């Protein structure tokens, strides 16, 4: 216990250390006070006396005592918010009495140290998180994106993605956020693929034609797999956006079936044909060739592409293309052979893009399938001896001179 007389001696002492002790004691006493109102008023007045002290040390002690309390006087905490940086940053980070409007005024000044203090607050509301994202400060944006306990606005995340698409750290942090919309996610993935293709180490290791195939396949796979996930969640906004942006073409439709992303494929057909998804699933599962042909005509696909898709659908009904790599390779090979035989090697113009895609897939799938064959064979035939050709030169015959 400290007598009132001793407290007054400390608070009036010329030594700032003594006044700092008094400021801290007064702040603690105010927060924990449960006595008469006049005592509370006296303590309240004392806090303002320390707030006007010329010593930073005294005001810092006052702030330290009030910092974490919900009962701290709001006028004092707002005043300390605009004090010296060592005080204001602590108040901005810890004080629970501050409201969004208090913090927004600080954020507009765009001082990185203060922004960093705010982004470290235990609870950050939507208005504050939006303002921090829109500050444009890369370090602050990164720290906020890594806060999984803070909910972020998907539209503002889309703005950040467009602005910082070339920043690999921000792109990676954005892709880890659940709030990121599917269309923004595919935008970032395509941007990453483009940057990866331009990297010197990649360009120097893979010939251009193969690199183009790999990047195209990565983009196609990302587009359809994201669409499949959205379809599984009962969302069709992504499919609508892809159709509106003309990103759904014969290549993507073929890829979605071959990759086993049939929910996304069906969702796109439902939007294009303006039919219920249940009806589309029924047709894909058991519809006749004529019924499927009518569906694709309603979707606006040309007859040649429609016939190719129908063949692929009939093949896909018998296997699980999402998991069976060998089946994918076999079906693609069969489709290529059928196209060559039907057209006697002269592929029609309207099928050139689809034929090119099937050829690319045939190569990629063959490479993936072959990658696991030799290790599997080695394990299975570990005790066997693999016959190798004899490199010893045979004895040459000498012909008699004529």
**What is the number of helical segments per DSSP (H or I, 4+ residues)?**
24
Strand content: under 5%
Query: Structural class of the helices, strands and pairings?
Result: mainly alpha
Main pleated sheet: none
Global morphology: elongated
Helix-strand string: HHHHHHHHHHHHHHHHHHHHHHHH
Mean pLDDT: 88
Helix content: 55-70%
| Low-confidence spans | none
- Computed over alpha carbons, the radius of gyration is 35 Å
What is the first-to-last residue Cα distance? 130 Å
The number of distinct β-strands equals 0
Q: What's the helix and strand layout?
A:
Elements: H1 4-11, H2 16-32, H3 37-51, H4 56-66, H5 74-81, H6 85-94, H7 100-107, H8 112-119, H9 126-133, H10 138-145, H11 154-163, H12 168-175, H13 182-198, H14 200-203, H15 208-232, H16 237-244, H17 250-258, H18 262-273, H19 277-286, H20 289-298, H21 303-316, H22 325-342, H23 352-371, H24 373-380
